[in-house]
């Protein structure tokens, strides 16, 4: 029957090992996409994904595969991101699957996110099909990689498929192995509907579109569904699958991975991990859902135009539907007005959120420097969490500041251990141990402050190891550190949105660097602008932006109105991302100065 012919699987790997390219070959081989419509990494359909060449969103598609045994199978393939900032997308994808194709680059071998992602799949008891990809490369070492898979992951790699997602080598075998190795979904067609929401997106016409995995039963257009976390009821208006464009169906049944709409207009009603059932025949128990994810970094998001505050709120709510890792709460800044304090999984995630808000919701935003969350022990004994430097209590009220620490594993070829340790040491790292992974590589473990990791650690690591190092980290807890708040004053006034929390030992250097960076980014204005960095009342660095005297319009000779208008427009465009902070016009880049201090 149908259920026995369904195979649900994800492709997991370290970033750039070829997941999206393999998905392309599978779509081609199953004639899901006509050759003429094919483009590279076709499932990376977001403009941002295409521009950056990375997968940001999970993407579930249905395809039909005629196997060598003559039978036709229904595949639901979920392509997933590889970057650590999007691992929540991976874990949610895996919850909809029975199997995972594990891709390992034949030239790079097992890397940090290979391990992180395969462990997620093993946690979910998925059947793993190991594939060694890119065997077409001259530098491919499939035998070494096989060994790594066995030694480092503990998987039997004797039957690993040697493949090239580029040339298509091995793809027929991969398709057959999906049929033979990935189990058909279990679940009961006759039981009441039980479906897992693993993703969602807001559509202005159809309302919330839910990505669901049907665990038991079936759902049809016209059914009244109930969301089990809040009891809200809706009538199903459409169900279907992505293939890769939306294809409507009359029903979804046990084992299916598809989408569902039910004129859900109130965004707050739906969240990923919730269970969908039928109102008049509910299932007894809800599914476990997903673990709550905690942000790693926080920053403030403010509309350039203060009148757009409500638009920003609406945009964040809609985006949150499609980005379950995003968090936000309203925030007020003296300098920037009303906005939101947002939590992200990392700097790439932060960057992607800002870009999506601007592109998909047409907003101009100012984003403030990222910060981690600190635990502040006050002199009265109370412990408060502070993720916004501007909200740090007065120094006289602080007994101790604790910062989040991570355990970082850095996988690197033997030759680069020196540079790696040098960087980790410089970032206040505490050496834990070093494990030899095989003849060629080591795993260097350090305890490091999260704040040091999120800024430029990874860039430094990459550049001093010719790109060979890969990094994974987990928060382990908080430690008291010698931290101080550094304020920035423009024209004598402190700008709350430019305050940062820094380690005492780095304060002078960072103060000087930020001041220098600000001098470069803040354009000359009608008056001189002193820039100062201060700890408490003590000024630790200063500089000045000289006054700008020339009037642009003076250049316009008599009455050439078009030229004059053009100049004014140009000036206006340049100002788009400027924010008046007191009397000073400050560009967006200035708020990110802390990130550009090397
Ligand atoms: P993902 O990050 O895992 O989704 O990786 P992509 O599918 O985006 O591929 C990353 C890069 O590797 C792209 O430039 C691909 O063209 C390239 N690539 C993928 N598979 C192969 C392969 O089998 N051989 C070679 N030579 N390049 C490949
Ligand atoms: Mg990809």
From TrEMBL:
Query: EC no.?
Result: 3.6.5.n1
User: What is catalyzed by this enzyme?
Assistant: GTP + H2O = GDP + phosphate + H(+)
Q: Which GO molecular function, any one, fits this protein according to its record?
A: GTP binding
Keywords for this entry? Cell membrane, GTP-binding, Hydrolase, Membrane, Nucleotide-binding, Protein biosynthesis
Question: Does this UniProt record's set of keywords contain Hydrolase?
Answer: yes
Q: Name one GO cellular component term.
A: plasma membrane
- Tr-type G domain spans which residues? 4-186
Organism superkingdom = Bacteria
Under InterPro entries, the record lists: EF-4, EFG_III/V, EFG_V-like, EFTu-like_2, LepA_C_sf, LepA_CTD, LepA_IV, P-loop_NTPase
Q: How does it sit in the membrane?
A: Peripheral membrane protein
| Alphabetical list of CDD domains matching this protein | EF4_II, EF4_III, LepA, lepA_C
Localization, per the record, is: Cell membrane
Q: What is this protein's function per UniProt?
A: Required for accurate and efficient protein synthesis under certain stress conditions. May act as a fidelity factor of the translation reaction, by catalyzing a one-codon backward translocation of tRNAs on improperly translocated ribosomes. Back-translocation proceeds from a post-translocation (POST) complex to a pre-translocation (PRE) complex, thus giving elongation factor G a second chance to translocate the tRNAs correctly. Binds to ribosomes in a GTP-dependent manner.
Record-given protein name = Elongation factor 4
Q: What are the leading ranks of the lineage?
A: Bacteria, Bacillati, Bacillota, Bacilli, Lactobacillales
Protein encoded by which gene: lepA
């Amino acid at each position: 029957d149908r259920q026995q012919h369904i195979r649900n699987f994800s492709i997991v790997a370290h970033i750039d090992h070829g997941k999206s390219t393999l998905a392309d070959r599978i779509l081609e081989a199953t004639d899901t996409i006509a050759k003429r419509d094919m483009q590279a990494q076709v499932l990376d359909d977001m403009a941002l994904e295409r521009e950056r060449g990375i997968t940001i969103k999970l993407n579930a598609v249905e395809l039909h595969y005629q196997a060598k045994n003559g039978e036709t199978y229904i595949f639901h393939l979920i392509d997933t991101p590889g970057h650590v900032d999007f691992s929540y997308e991976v874990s949610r994808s895996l919850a909809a699957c029975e199997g995972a194709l594990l891709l390992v680059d034949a030239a790079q071998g097992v890397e940090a996110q290979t391990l992180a992602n395969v462990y997620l799949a093993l946690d979910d008891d998925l059947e793993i099909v190991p594939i060694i990809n890119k065997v077409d490369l001259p530098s491919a070492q499939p035998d070494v990689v096989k060994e790594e898979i066995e030694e480092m992951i503990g998987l039997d790699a004797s039957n690993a498929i040697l493949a090239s997602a580029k040339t298509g080598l091995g793809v027929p075998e991969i398709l057959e192995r999906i049929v033979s190795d990935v189990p058909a979904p279990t679940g009961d067609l006759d039981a009441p509907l039980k479906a897992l929401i693993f993703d969602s997106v807001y559509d202005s016409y159809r309302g919330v579109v839910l990505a669901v995995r049907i665990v038991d039963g079936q759902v049809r257009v016209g059914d009244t569904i109930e969301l089990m976390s809040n009891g809200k009821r809706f009538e199903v208006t459409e169900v279907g699958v992505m293939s890769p464009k939306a294809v409507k169906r009359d029903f979804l049944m046990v084992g299916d991975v598809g989408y569902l709409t039910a004129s859900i207009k109130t965004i707050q009603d739906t969240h990923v991990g919730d269970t969908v059932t039928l109102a008049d025949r509910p299932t007894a128990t809800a599914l476990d859902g997903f673990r709550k994810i905690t942000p790693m970094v926080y920053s403030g998001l403010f509309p350039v135009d203060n009148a757009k505050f409500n638009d920003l709120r609406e945009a964040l709510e809609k985006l949150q539907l499609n980005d379950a890792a995003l968090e936000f709460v309203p925030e007020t800044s003296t300098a920037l007005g009303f906005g939101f304090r947002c939590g992200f999984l990392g700097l790439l995630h932060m960057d992607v959120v800002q870009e999506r808000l601007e592109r998909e919701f047409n907003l101009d935003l100012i984003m403030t420097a990222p910060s981690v969350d600190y635990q502040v022990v006050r002199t009265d004994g109370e412990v408060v969490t502070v993720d916004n430097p501007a909200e740090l209590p007065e120094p006289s009220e602080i007994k101790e500041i604790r910062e989040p620490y991570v355990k970082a594993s850095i996988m690197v070829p033997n030759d680069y251990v020196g540079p790696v340790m040098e960087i980790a040491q410089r970032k206040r790292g505490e050496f834990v141990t070093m494990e030899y992974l095989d003849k060629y590589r080591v795993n260097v473990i350090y305890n490091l402050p999260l704040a040091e990791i999120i800024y430029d650690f990874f860039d430094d690591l990459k550049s001093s190891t010719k790109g060979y190092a890969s990094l994974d980290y987990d928060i382990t807890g908080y430690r008291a550190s010698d931290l101080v708040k550094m304020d920035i004053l423009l024209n004598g006034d402190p700008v709350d949105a430019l305050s940062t929390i820094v380690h005492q030992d780095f304060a002078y250097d960072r103060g000087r660097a930020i001041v220098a960076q600000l001098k470069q980014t803040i354009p000359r204005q009608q008056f001189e602008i002193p820039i100062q960095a201060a700890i408490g009342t003590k000024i630790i660095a200063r500089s000045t932006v000289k006054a700008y005297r020339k009037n642009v319009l003076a250049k316009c000779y008599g009455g050439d109105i078009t030229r004059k208008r053009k100049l004014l427009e140009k000036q206006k465009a340049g100002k788009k991302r400027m924010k008046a902070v007191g009397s000073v016009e400050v560009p967006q880049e200035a708020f990110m100065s802390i990130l550009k201090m090397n």
